[in-house]
Amino acid sequence: MAGIMFTDGKFVLAGYNPKKFYISGIGGKKKDNETPIHTAIREVLEELFELETIPEDLKNVLYENLTFDTVFSSNGYTNFIMDFRYDLEVFFEAISKFDVRSRVYSTIPQTLEQLLMTRIVVPEAELSHLMLIPCVYNIGLDEKFIDDIYTFKNCERSIR
Fold it and tell me: For 80, 132, 133, 158, which has the most beta carbons within 10 A of its beta carbon?
């Protein structure tokens, strides 16, 4: 199992998995004989971009252009730490060179802001929402804030 943690040291990119009802990092299980690096690249393409097809050449371009020197492993999971300002930009640039379609973006995002703000909520997507969460230890959610979220979800009125 492997993934990539995109961060700037203050925030980390995370996603909400609606089927499991939790927020997680970006990554998952290896397929066939993948190395942790190859698993991490594929999982980012699957979870962040929800590409309909992933060209092998795209994965190769990313493998050749990313640096996988900051890594930690725990309980069989390998996590590569990468920067918003550089590494995520490598993903944007590489994907833009391929004719691919996304299930959650009408146009492939080219910035972190677009990645977060133009995502279309699709029920079958592994991650329905992306977010930045603060890099702090022992984070908790205020019960009243959770109640507000549930109230908002059940509210009939649309927000404009």
Answer: 80
